[in-house]
Design brief:
The structure is a homodimer of 332-residue chains. The longest helix of chain A has 22 residues, at 295-316. Chain A has 11 helices and 11 strands. The first copy, chain A, is globular and about 50 Å long. Among the domains of chain A are: 41-122, Leucine Dehydrogenase, chain A, domain 1 (Rossmann fold), CATH 3.40.50.10860; 158-296, Rossmann fold. Chain A is of the alpha/beta class and 332 residues long. Chain A has an 8-stranded mixed sheet with strand order 1-11-10-9-5-6-7-8, sandwiched between helices. A 3-stranded parallel sheet of chain A has the order 3-2-4, sandwiched between helices. At the A-B interface, helix 4, helix 5, helix 6 and strand 8 of A face helix 4, helix 5, helix 6 and strand 8 of B.
């Protein structure tokens, strides 16, 4: 799983500098998905709700549709008034022909959007943003149900970033579970529940020390006592110190005005930018490995999550009706 | 239920002006609770987690403890590091001697706090802030379980505000369900998921037109087609127009600098302020009914919610173990 899926980056990894185009990584996963769909037949279907005229979201939905259609997935964009969104989500939850549901945020903004994330059934939560799927990620719970028939999905942007890091020579190979990033320090500038915190948890799970930075300060993430759980730790380290110690720097500040000072990034660092805009000077690739955008891999992970949900739902139909009702939440 | 529980406010209601002290309303509900506890015996227990030195939260916890102890409820304040809070909540979820759990927010701030609200089991969510309890409120789902043995709780600040409005001559008596506020217009300046939106939903359920205002604009709330459901509607009305049309104005902006211009509030309006600071000039009581603080009733509703959870959990022990596992969520 951690081995190189392409030779594309060999030179960049050896030289510890250069700009990375993630297309080969996306293609690798998309080919796997395409083959799987060809094999099992059927028509996995994803519905995406858009409530605004945001050009970024429109563009992203176009690319997603093109990729999905090429790979055998039906992608339906539904434009809808924001006040009608909740009802539309509930309808899609109940529609057996819909296997995955996503929403382009912001809709209302703030906590109401967080509420809407949880109206999507965890069983159709293709982006992995529902509290249930996030809780399960943080607590190493792999299944939505007691019977262990429905695998959880992982938020797709953090998943994409982990897949990219795996290809850039950071993970140690042939080590025990939870050991692949032992000794590594990673700084993430973003602690959202959508990307930054799930990502910190995933990297800490593999043994890294993660400095998670947002406007309120820095929190350290480490592996917990049991594999798959995490520990948050207060720290007095500064942002500058954290960046200078890190072998990987992950940037996700959604503002074109936010740029990290290049002097704070040491040579050979892997710099991954997932914000819509570049949070670092473009010429940083002369001394570091720069991944300026990750969108293509995110779309591949979205497809991957959809296939997981599709398979969960195919399986569900073979279970007796009683078990379909028991959507047990482990954590309560 | 809507009838006056005290004659205290008769003059104020008739004159349509004056300052309201909510103590008699709080005492009415607390006396009910005290009697119930005396009757059933037992020791309902609530645990409150505090992760900061915030003086406001400390003061509020002291008042809550005094009220609870007087009424027969054990209130335990646990001071804890924020990084340890999630584990502590999970432990309290699993502790059969704890019937209700609350947290003083902010802890980390932002979406992480929203996540923590959902780590509290809906069965012990004494403040009614979990997504499950809020979803159920918005969709008129009254029970947490399929067997209809565990009643949902309603967020306690909105519940307190409804109880106060009921005492100030706004509700029509002896009308059908969902009709008591027909013809009334109400403005709420706050659309948080903790107070403003659940409150808008509750008032819309009873037939009011609610103008829900936050920094992003105005949304109208009306009763949905089925009783107990709500409809959000886009509107072009301005904040000033909304306030001038309203018989009730509810203020919850957590900033001492935010004051509504008194000229925008018509004579006889019921003005309820639930922010920690007063969002209106204090002398507005010369032309309106002013409720400057509601904290005492909120504490009474917290106790009331705890009793509901306590009774749910007493009942649960008499159910066969299999049924205890089926924590079914209706909406997925």
């Amino acid at each position: 799983m951690h081995s190189m899926i392409t030779n594309e980056y060999k030179e960049i990894v050896e030289n510890k500098k250069g700009k990375v185009d993630v297309t080969p990584i996306a293609n690798f996963f998309r080919n796997e998905i395409k083959e799987q769909i060809t094999k099992i037949g059927g028509k996995p279907r994803m519905v995406a709700f858009l409530t605004t005229d945001d050009q970024g979201a429109l563009d992203y939905s176009k690319w997603t549709k093109i990729a999905c259609n090429k790979d055998g997935i039906e992608f339906i964009l539904k434009r809808i008034e924001r006040v009608d969104l909740e009802d539309a989500i509930i309808e899609a939850n109940q529609d057996d022909d819909v296997h995955g549901i996503m929403v382009y945020y912001p809709v209302f903004g703030g906590m109401l959007d967080s509420y809407l994330q949880d109206v999507i059934s965890p069983e159709k939560d293709v982006e992995g943003l529902s509290t249930t799927n996030r809780f399960n990620l943080y607590h190493n719970i792999r299944y939505l149900d007691k019977e262990m028939t429905k695998k959880c999905v992982i938020p797709c942007t953090p998943l994409a970033i982990v897949k990219i890091i795996e290809q850039l020579g950071i993970y140690r190979e042939n080590v025990e579970l939870g050991q692949a990033l032992v000794g590594k320090e990673i700084t993430i500038i973003n602690r959202s529940e959508i990307v930054g915190r799930p990502l910190a948890a995933m990297l800490a799970n593999d043994g890294a020390i993660v400095y998670s930075i947002d406007i309120n300060g820095i929190i350290m993430f480490e592996a917990g006592k049991r594999y798959g759980t995490i520990k948050m730790v207060e720290t007095k380290i500064t942002k500058e110190e954290a960046m200078l110690k890190s072998q990987v720097l992950i940037l996700g500040v959604p503002s074109p005005n936010y740029k990290v000072n290049s002097d704070l990034i040491k040579e050979g660092t892997v710099v991954i930018n997932f914000a819509g805009c570049l949070n670092v000077d473009e010429d940083i690739d002369s001394k570091t490995i720069l991944v300026p955008t990750i969108g293509k891999v995110t779309i591949a992970m979205l497809e991957r999550n959809l296939m997981r949900l599709y398979n969960n739902q195919r399986l569900k139909k073979t279970l007796p009706p009683q078990d379909q009702l028991n959507q047990y939440q482990y954590y309560h």
